[in-house]
Every structure is written in structure tokens, then in C-alpha cells.
Design a protein that fits this description.
The protein has 484 residues and is an alpha/beta fold. Helix content is 43%, strand content 16%. Bound molecules: manganese (II) ion (MN). Manganese (II) ion binds next to loops.
């Protein structure tokens, strides 16, 4: 893809339209309501738009939500906003919202798949969505990336928000190019950030904090890959290094991953791969090495320094019920906000490790069906965290050819929340989990959607067995090249 092809031009044309519309609302001092998604990308998107609106002295308010539905549309309308901006969600609700409340100006800055091109592009609503221009929104640009381009079009000063869009893309696991690189339109954002002196990109071991943290801490804090017995356990991580003869200290000073010799790095990688293989998990050594995105203006030792870890921090804030804190960090708050976020991150890591430990403790908790893996979190796993758990698990399944579907009970007990993940390789064989979740949930009185490699659904408790059966069938059909 080149940046000046027809699709890209179309996309950037919609970016300018959105930018004009937002500037117009700000100029007229209209009240702007922003709704964004409760994940790292959604929070990054909210942070970028918040900063851009702040710089305009615009009147706005932000809500973070896990999902939009009819009920949330009614709530939006009841608040009588002049302008609604959806970020990292909402494409499919624009037309409906406009129909119910034609007086509201609606702008959707999204990258989720849409069933078909929204018909009424001329009704005053504005869509910026890569999928409408045949650009792959599951790996070439994230929700926060879309918002970044709009913010940059509003005012070039917003280029300083490029690193936040990179964090969002990493949070959505868009580093799918060779050696875990961001590509497509994300590449353009990376270039902006590098040119502005805010980011460096290097190839190395992808563990968090490779340049600043003691090695055992870097290994223990990384959850992608999730390394059983080492993730979350610094003492065991230290013992693991000792068993390899890798010295954690040099002259009383802790060594970081960047201080390892090439030989030591190789030794570490193959030992980790063996460690996982011995526990029935598959992991490509090559995936341990990749592009590392370092936010150079961030303090060493802090979790905002490494792009991937920053994304986990935002996810943690969202999933642990503190999305506002995540937004504050994205708009530049540090000090006590960062301290709070770090303690939430610790709590979140502890929770995820507890869940992953629970799943791996009994082999039957990872069920293998004909075409998919299934994990049922029962009452144990919080439905807001099921997506993170399935993302982590999906990177080291015994058979990576099968998508993973994890689910847990929602609070009211009436609905089950599903999270589906697979690899690009499986997606390239025709498995589109977003579409499969949408179809299967639709037939089971629920709803679903998302990206080809990462999707979700919610389904009434009584239809769960039918839903799982259908997903298993649809994945099989997709793999067999059948259309449905
Ligand atoms: Mn997203």
C-alpha cells in the first residue's frame, strides 16, 4: 500500500471532513460528547481527542463504555448533546442515532469492521473508518490512530500525540508485520513520532523495559508471551536466569536486557521456548524478538516508557474500573496519576496471573473442540478481563491453528461475554472471527462483532451451547472455504 493510492486518499478526505466538523463544533462552543471504548486503544483514542479538544478550549465530556446498544443510544439522546463523537466504536450506530435524533451531529472515528458501507453518508453524519476505504482496520490502523490523524488535521501541534496512537495500536495487537512491526497507516504515525523525537524503534527482545529494568523484572512483567511460573514471579524469574548461567548483576549493578551479549540472548530465547514447550505451550522463538517502541520522553523505569507496556497500563486502568486515570495519563498527567496507575497495573497483573494460573492448573479448563479451543471462566474470571486473558492465552496454544474462544458470566448472570482470538495465519485462511461472532450471536439472540483476529460477543445464558456449537461449525466452514 502506498500513502497516495486512491483508498488512502479517500480515507484522508474523510479525516479532513471530521476535523472540519469538530473544529466547527468547537468554534460554535457546542457541547461535545465523546464515547470511547473500554480497552487500551479506546482509552488512547479518548486521550488524544481530549487533548486536542482541550487545546481548542472546547466544551466536552467523555464516557468510556464496553459496548453500545439501543439503551446507550437513548441515554446519549437524553443528555441532549450538540455533537457526538464516537471513538474506537460506534460505526454501526451512527445511522440509528441520527434517525432517533436528527438534530445531533454525529462523528464516528472507528476502525471496527462494518457489515456494509453505511448508506447515508450525506445525512450530515461523518464516518472515518479504514474499512470503508478497503484499508485493513485490524492491523493497519487502530481507533486511536484514526483519532490521531483527525487531531493532526485539526492542528499540526497534535503531532505530539503520535506516541499515544502507537500505544493504542500496540494495545490492539496490530504489530502484525514482520518481526512484530507496525505497518500500513500505523507506519506513518511511527514516522511522525520518530521525526518529532518522541519515539525510537529498535529490534530486540520484546520484553517490557528492555533498556531500563533488571532482566528478571523484565521477564516477570511481560505477559505476551505469558510464561507459566515466570510471568508475575520475580523470584522464579531470577532462579531461571541463574539456571542458565546468566548473571543478573555486573559489579553490583543490575543488568538490563540490552546489556546481554548475543550469545546470552540466544540462550535465553531457546530456554524460554523449551520452558513453554515442556508445559504443553507452543511459542515461536522468533516472536520473542521484534520491533520495540520506546517513548523516549518518558522516565526510564516507568511503564509508560515501553509502548507495549503503556498499552497494558491503559488496559489495566480500563478493566479495573479507572478509565479516567488512563485518559489522564494519555493527556500528559504524570506524578500522582502515574503512581495510581502503576498500582492499578500491579493489581491487574496479579489478577491476570491468578486467572491464567487457574486455567493452566487443570488441563480440562482449556477444552479442545473440533475447530476451536474453549475456556469457560465460570464465576471466577471477571468478564471485563476475559478479553485480556484470551489475548494472552491465544499467543501460546498447543495448536495455534485453532481460534480460542473464552467466556465468562456478566454481572447480572443472564448474559455470557465471549472473547475470540486467533492468529493472522488462521485469518488469512478465511477465518473472520468478527463476522463469525456477529452471525452466531445474531442467531442466538445476542450480538457480536469485531476484527478478523479479535472479536467479542454477548449471548443469553440459555443459548450458550447453541452459540458455541455454531461458532465451532462456522470456523470449520470458513477453514473449508465455504461461504456463509
Ligand atoms: Mn481498537
Amino acid at each position: 500500500m502506498t500513502l497516495d493510492d486512491e483508498h488512502t486518499r479517500g480515507f484522508f478526505n474523510s479525516v479532513s471532513m471530521a476535523s472540519e466538523a469538530i473544529l466547527d463544533s468547537a468554534r460554535k462552543d457546542e457541547l461535545i460528547h465523546v464515547y470511547s471504548h473500554l480497552d487500551a486503544d479506546g482509552i488512547a483514542a479518548a486521550g488524544i481527542i481530549a487533548k486536542a479538544l482541550n487545546r481548542l478550549d472546547a466544551r466536552f465530556r467523555i464516557r468510556i463504555t464496553q459496548w453500545l446498544d439501543e439503551k446507550s443510544l437513548d441515554e446519549i439522546i437524553a443528555e441532549k448533546p450538540h455533537t457526538v463523537i464516537f471513538t474506537d466504536l460506534g460505526t454501526e450506530y451512527v445511522a440509528q442515532l441520527r434517525r432517533k435524533a436528527p438534530e445531533i451531529k454525529v462523528i464516528a472515528l472507528d476502525h471496527h469492521q462494518v457489515e456494509e458501507r453505511p448508506a447515508e453518508v450525506s445525512d450530515g453524519s461523518i464516518y472515518v473508518n479504514p474499512h470503508l476505504f478497503s484499508i485493513d482496520g485490524s492491523r493497519d490502523i487502530s481507533g486511536s490512530g484514526v483519532v490521531y490523524f483527525v487531531a493532526k488535521s485539526m492542528d499540526p501541534v497534535n503531532v505530539d500525540l503520535a506516541p499515544i496512537a502507537i500505544v493504542g495500536a500496540l494495545g490492539d495487537l496490530q504489530d502484525k508485520y514482520d518481526q512484530r512491526m507496525l505497518g500500513g497507516l500505523n507506519r506513518k504515525i511511527v514516522d511522525d513520532a520518530v521525526d518529532a523525537g518522541l519515539l525510537t524503534v529498535e529490534k530486540d527482545l520484546i520484553f517490557f523495559g528492555r533498556e531500563t529494568r533488571p532482566i528478571h523484572k523484565a521477564l516477570a512483567s511481560t505477559t505476551s508471551p505469558y510464561i507459566p511460573e515466570i510471568s508475575g514471579a520475580e523470584d522464579k524469574s531470577l532462579a531461571f536466569l541463574a539456571s542458565l548461567g546468566i548473571k543478573p548483576k555486573e559489579d553490583d549493578k543490575w543488568r538490563a536486557l540490552r546489556d546481554l551479549s548475543e550469545d546470552e540472548k540466544k540462550k535465553l530465547c531457546s530456554a524460554l521456548a523449551n520452558h513453554m514447550l515442556a508445559r504443553g505451550l507452543h511459542y515461536e522463538i522468533s516472536n520473542l524478538i521484534g520491533h520495540v517502541y520506546t517513548l523516549t520522553r518518558e522516565e526510564p523505569w516507568t511503564p509508560t516508557r515501553d509502548g507495549r507496556e503503556f498499552a497494558v497500563l491503559l488496559n489495566a486502568a480500563g478493566r479495573m474500573g479507572k478509565p479516567g486515570l488512563g485518559i489522564a495519563i494519555c493527556t500528559g498527567d504524570r506524578g500522582s496519576a502515574l503512581e495510581d496507575a502503576i498500582s492499578i497495573l500491579e493489581e491487574y497483573r496479579w489478577t491476570i496471573n491468578k486467572y491464567l494460573g487457574w486455567i493452566t492448573e487443570k488441563p480440562e479448563r482449556l477444552k479442545e473442540l473440533e475447530n476451536i479451543y474453549l475456556v469457560y471462566g465460570e464465576d471466577f474470571i471477571d468478564e471485563k478481563i476475559i478479553g485480556a486473558v484470551s489475548s494472552i492465552l491465544s499467543t501460546n496454544l498447543p495448536n495455534p491453528e485453532k481460534p480460542l474462544i473464552a467466556y465468562a458470566k456478566a454481572k447480572d448472570g443472564e448474559i455470557l461475554k465471549f472473547s475470540a482470538r486467533t492468529t493472522d495465519a488462521v485469518a488469512s485462511r478465511g477465518v473472520n472471527l468478527g463476522k463469525i461472532m456477529q452471525i452466531a450471536a445474531g442467531k442466538c439472540l445476542g450480538k457480536g462483532g469485531g476484527h478478523d483476529v479479535a472479536a467479542g460477543a454477548q449471548v443469553p445464558v440459555e443459548n450458550v451451547d447453541a452459540f458455541i456449537k455454531l461458532v465451532n461449525e462456522l470456523v470449520g466452514k470458513a477453514l473449508a472455504g465455504e461461504t456463509f
